[in-house]
Amino acid sequence: MNDQVTPIPKDIEGKILAWRHWHSFWSFMHYGVGFIGAALSAVVAANTENAFLTKEWSVGLAAAAAGTTFLITALGASAKSAAFEAAAREIEKGVSLFRSDESNKGTPTKSILYDAEARGIDILNTVK
Question: Is the pTM of this model over 0.90?
Answer without folding.
Answer: no
